User: Fold this.
Amino acid sequence: MRKKKMTITILGCIGVFLIAALVLLPATQANAETVKYNFTSQNTKVEYILLPDVKGHVVGLYERRGVAIFENEVAAITCWGTFDKIKGKVSFQGYTQITFKDGSTWMQTHQGTHAPAPGEKLDSYKGKGEYIKGTGRFEGIKGKISFTGRQITPNTKDKTKGDSWIEATGTYALPKK
Assistant:
């Protein structure tokens, strides 16, 4: 008899969990929004040091500024991060903040790689990240992003600032109000 009550209790708990999952999962997915945007940016600060282990091994930090272009609005974008370059391949990670005209912002992490594609001189980008903070209409934002892109001009000290074009897709949810 005791074994039968335990089995019923376990099955009851599983049933409650399944019902909760069926009720709550669609609500979470229905709240999700996908946004596609492009942005162009250039280096505003780059600091680096050469490491003595491999010829041309460089580590450093950067700041990039530019403009994000959405379907119905534009926004300012700033990226800060660190990079590690070995034999022409760069891995990077950092933070991006997008500031909209109404003062709302979102902040996200980013990480990825860039290197020249075969036969190319300028780099192609690929990466991903997560929304970590929002203000104004994006208060409480949570979600993920992915991006690809390409370098338009090389990084030089005197002529160009490493202009880049990025295509990003984000899926995020905001808390219910």
Notes: DSSP finds one helix and eight strands in the chain. The chain has one domain: 33-173.
